[in-house]
Design brief:
Number of strands of chain A: 10
Order of helices and strands of chain A: EEEEHEEHEHEHHEEH
Radius of gyration of chain A: 20 Å
Number of domains of chain A: 2
Oligomer: homodimer
Low-confidence stretches of chain A: none
Mean pLDDT of chain A: 91
CATH superfamily of the largest domain in chain A: Nucleoside Triphosphate Pyrophosphohydrolase
Distance between the termini of chain A: 50 Å
CATH architecture of the largest domain in chain A: Alpha-Beta Complex
Chain lengths: 235, 235
DNA sequence: TCAAAAGTGTTCGGACTACACCCATGA
DNA sequence: TCATGGGTGTAGTCCGAACACTTTTGA
């Protein structure tokens, strides 16, 4: 016998803002919504929470459904609750944002959901309040990446410093001095130099680096100051 | 006719982690739970969301019920969703954290809820996962206060720099150099010196200051670096 | 040999820290 | 006059930002 009898129950969903990086540009993964309302329109990938899972498990399940992968970087962003956000029935949605290495999973995309990668700045209009979620996720990512090495989650195992810089420049829609950038990044001690070079993007070639996972975990929460004049980007 | 028919509905609640500062120490406001399960035990103040309000409105309503006040600093922290967190029925809870000037409201506390202020470090055991919520809120507050002037929300209109320092020391459970502290705080330009002094805490007396609200709003998101070696406190 | 990108070096100013010292006042 | 906080000053160090220069190599 429940004592919460007078209270109204409602639907709880998870929506995922999924960022990817293809080596040059930052992208967002969205799907064509499969059900009414707004069927056929672009939407964040989401799903309803099930009785025996918590929100993070739900977000992981949703991500696996769509991309086939597990163990992605996943972070709870915020819960959205405007009463009329879903016109059909009241649904509160918890937004999660995910960072994935696009190259690894580009071909595994589920066709069932008509998933597609868009350039972050050229994405289509999204349904409901999903636009607001993406904007908040972007803002949060900028904030976080200015202090913590979170963007490494978007890179493949081996990457070059110019690639890393392109990623930062994509996230901040800005341009940084490459000389200061590489020195700053190397000074963190997070990178391990490899013997091979990447010759695709220049004649001289740029050395590959690999993330020191141990140091990465240990130093993640420290203030690392990756970008110059971070205040500029926190509007 | 709903198309989400197969999905399970559940209860959604808000719980508030309410911090206060009495001029010397940091405190937490908790209540005696009025209903089963766990009736009579200490708990965060909370309530179920209603059909026509969003989460922030709900948190504000809950705060007003308890303290009689509106317009408090309020921030969504995280949503807690372990299936068995409430043993009676599945309830997902959105944790909000609030900062209030304790002096202003100490006497208005609602007796209906048996509310009580505890020293943050000497609080009683709380029900469900409320302990986890408080710990997370504390961590978040430390993080945020190390970069942004959020702690001013805990102070009365007029305050002295030694008081402000006591507040920071309480939050970080640490001791800072008063000479560097005052210089750093004054250099932000956020404080407006008053003519009167506070003579209660020393013979010489300390000047009162007032927050420049305009500059506070404008600079809130900037990185201000209030405490030395912030990395130490981000564990 | 030359263009284009990768990467190292240098200088300057400002911020943070540690610590010494003076100030005001009530008892 | 002295003990007790309040408040200002200073020197050294480190870090970030701006900018010059060298290195490598394919075409």
């Amino acid at each position: 016998m429940t004592r919460y009898a007078k209270q109204k129950r409602l639907l709880l969903a998870v929506d995922c803002i999924i960022f990817g990086f293809d080596g040059h540009e930052v992208k967002l993964l969205v799907v064509k919504r499969a059900m009414d309302p707004e069927k056929g329109k672009w939407s964040l990938m989401g799903g309803f929470i099930r009785p025996n899972e918590n929100l993070k498990e739900c977000a992981n399940r949703v991500l696996k459904q769509l991309t086939g992968i597990e163990g992605v970087y996943l972070e709870q962003l915020r819960t959205f609750s405007k009463p009329e956000r879903d016109p059909l029935e009241r649904t509160v949605s918890v937004a999660y944002f995910a960072l994935i290495d696009i190259n690894k999973y580009e071909k595994q995309l589920s066709h069932e959901y008509s998933a597609e990668w868009f350039l972050l700045n050229q994405r289509p209009k999204l349904i409901f309040d999903h636009e607001e979620m993406v904007r908040l996720a972007q803002k949060h990512l900028r904030y976080k990446a200015s202090l913590h090495p979170v963007l490494f989650e978007l890179l493949p195992e081996k990457f070059t410093i110019p690639q890393l810089q392109e990623l930062y420049e994509g996230i901040y829609d800005s341009h940084f001095d490459n000389r200061n950038f590489s020195r700053k990044v190397l000074s963190t001690g997070l990178l391990v130099k490899q013997k091979e070079k990447d010759k695709k993007n220049s004649k001289k070639g740029a050395f590959f680096y690999r993330l020191d996972r141990k140091k990465y975990k240990a130093d993640f929460q420290a203030f690392l100051n990756f970008i110059p004049n971070p205040d500029k980007f926190l509007s």
